[in-house]
Design goal:
Blueprint: H1 10-13, H2 15-18, E1 40-45, H3 60-69, E2 74-77, E3 80-86, E4 89-93, E5 99-104, H4 118-131, E6 142-148, E7 151-156, H5 163-166, H6 177-182, H7 194-197, E8 207-213, E9 217-222, E10 235-240, H8 243-252, E11 257-261, E12 273-279, E13 283-288, H9 301-310, H10 313-320, E14 325-326, H11 349-359, E15 365-371, E16 375-376, E17 379-380, H12 381-395, E18 398-404, H13 406-414, E19 420-425, H14 443-447, H15 456-467, H16 471-488, E20 491-496, E21 498-504, E22 507-508, E23 512-513, E24 517-518, E25 524-525
Parallel strand pairs: 1-10, 1-11, 15-18, 15-19
Antiparallel strand pairs: 2-3, 4-5, 5-7, 6-7, 8-9, 9-10, 11-21, 12-21, 13-19, 13-20, 14-20, 16-17, 22-25, 23-24
């Protein structure tokens, strides 16, 4: 996901760096928390919001907003993103993962009272494709056709086992085609409906859009036409607030939910605040360049092994704060195909020194590049880089830290010219196939100088995993691939930073989801 050259969420990485946000408790002027009479809930979030138009939206704040406004063909239950469940439709998938038949289930009603049909589905998905906006890559190589009034068939050019998980993304929410067309909407780049969709919603979700200010707040109200379970809160105010102020607000009772607390900020909030903590879907990793022209040192497999054996992963977890876990592999723990915690890399200083001696390393300085202004889930990259430098020094490896602003260092990372790099990856969609980019000749593989054909055994495992199969088969395929990557690949999975959501103890069913962060409609009131 992150730092893909055409990717969605560069803004996510820079949230803690680039945003100067609203001061404590003043975004709405009047709303101070959940009220049992009005049933208003206030949520603080550091905004990376650019639009509420699903066809153009692909930022975390937008995902949460559009999850409340629009329904998708398939979805996830709670925080479990390892398995899709029916949303608007049920799914039949061909064995080769190229044909996906979706049949609308029951009656679904848009907020203006009209019924949702297969025509709306075709228009909505074709619009995402035709707009060529941030989320359009989700449907690359996919065609959409109406079979009958209740059935739509999606056909992929190649095996695409990730498509069901992709269809759960709120960017693929189903729009009221008649309303959108009447307000400038089309399935081509001439579409002009964004302005309308930033002031009105045209969906069948549990909420409708009351107001939207991209810099300060979003207000949602319950959709009286919604066919599902009615939400507990009739009004939602989402405010643009930075993490430190979120802590003040939730402790002082001026907000109900705070979404962007670091592990340190989430500690000791008092008995009136409940904290839901766990690893996020982001994975922080090291890369060692495999191009001999870039570095004859890091391209040596024994040197790579020595670095893997030198890192004290538990120590890194300890400085990262509440909710953080070691990344066992490149696929995060909540996705299908993730490794078990015991399969992660382990420190072994004695073995590291033996591997280092075998590599022929003579104490040369090795440069570690990283973004100096990047904070992810409260973890500052300079802090991690400094700790890694200290750990490698204990083995006898000399590291020169080379921090640079994200905007500067991105080019070196994308062009594959870093000797060693410290970066992170978050899923474009919650399926392990998004992590095939870590193999030879693919996007992140090339950033580590790992050319196609460099590791035929790993390429074979990747090809098998890409072809798909049952969930059980895919789990085994991706676990085998990651074990091979841990053994001989140029990437070192380090951390899954913690995700911490603080909420008043009166708010229930607070569940983190790796795609939309929080399903507002399922929040309860004690």
């Amino acid at each position: 996901m992150v730092f893909r050259s055409t990717s969605k969420r560069v803004a996510l990485a820079a949230t803690a760096v680039a945003l100067t946000l609203v001061v404590a408790g003043c975004a709405s002027g009047k709303t101070t928390g959940a009220d049992s009479a009005s049933k208003t809930i206030t949520i603080d979030k550091a905004f990376d919001l650019k639009t509420a138009d699903p066809g153009r939206m692909y930022e975390p704040t937008g995902e949460m907003v559009d999850k409340a406004l629009y329904e998708t063909l398939l979805t996830f239950k709670g925080g479990d993103v390892s398995k899709v469940v029916p949303g608007l439709a049920s799914l039949e998938q061909s064995a080769d993962a190229k044909t996906f038949t979706l049949t609308l289930n029951g009656t679904h009603t848009f907020s203006d009272g009209t019924k949702l049909t297969a025509d709306d589905v075709v228009f909505s998905l074709d619009r995402v494709i035709g707009l060529k906006g941030n989320p359009s890559f989700l449907l690359d190589g996919v065609t959409v056709a109406k079979k009958d009034d209740k059935t739509v068939v999606l056909t992929a050019k190649t095996s695409t086992p990730a498509l069901p998980a992709i269809l759960a993304n709120p960017a693929l929410g189903i729009l009221n085609s008649k309303v959108v067309k009447a307000n400038g909407g089309s399935t081509t780049s001439t579409d002009a409906a964004e302005k309308y969709l930033n002031t009105h919603s045209a969906g069948s979700g549990p909420y409708i859009l009351s107001s939207l200010d991209l810099a300060s707040q979003v207000v949602l109200t319950a959709n009286p036409k919604y066919d599902g379970t009615k939400p507990a809160y009739s009004r939602v105010v989402i405010r643009n607030v930075e993490g430190a102020t979120q802590k003040i607000n939730v402790q002082g009772g001026n907000t109900d939910v705070a979404l962007d607390l670091s592990g340190t900020q989430a500690a000791d909030l008092g008995d009136k605040v409940s904290v839901t903590s766990g690893p996020s879907a982001n994975v922080i990793f090291l890369l060692l360049n495999q191009s001999k022209a870039i570095s004859p040192i890091t391209s040596n497999p024994d040197f790579v092994k020595a670095v893997k054996q030198s890192i004290d992963y538990n120590d890194l977890v300890s400085i990262a704060g509440k909710g953080t876990e070691q990344a066992a592999g490149v696929v995060p723990s909540m996705l299908l195909g993730a490794l078990e915690p015991g399969d992660g890399l382990k420190v072994d200083t004695t073995a590291a020194k033996a591997s280092l001696a075998k590599s022929g390393y003579k104490g040369e300085t090795v440069t570690l590049s990283f973004p100096s202004d990047l904070t992810l889930n409260g973890i500052e990259f300079p802090t991690i880089a400094q700790r890694i430098q200290s750990q490698l020094k204990a083995t006898g490896i000399t590291i020169d830290l080379a921090p640079a602003p994200v905007a500067t260092e991105l080019d070196a990372y994308r062009n594959g010219t870093e000797v060693m790099g410290l970066w992170y990856w978050g899923p474009d969609y919650p399926d392990p196939s998004d992590y095939l980019v870590f193999t030879p000749g693919d996007v992140v593989g090339l950033r580590a100088g790992w050319a196609a054909g460099a590791a035929p055994d790993i390429t074979k495992l990747a090809d098998t995993a890409a072809a798909g199969g049952t969930d059980e088969e895919r789990t085994t395929q991706f676990q085998d691939l990651q074990k091979a990557l841990n053994e001989s690949g140029p990437f070192i999975p380090l951390l899954q930073p913690g995700n911490n959501i603080a909420a008043k103890s009166t708010v229930s069913n607070v569940v983190y989801n790796a795609v939309w962060t929080l399903d507002i409609a399922t929040l309860g009131h004690k």
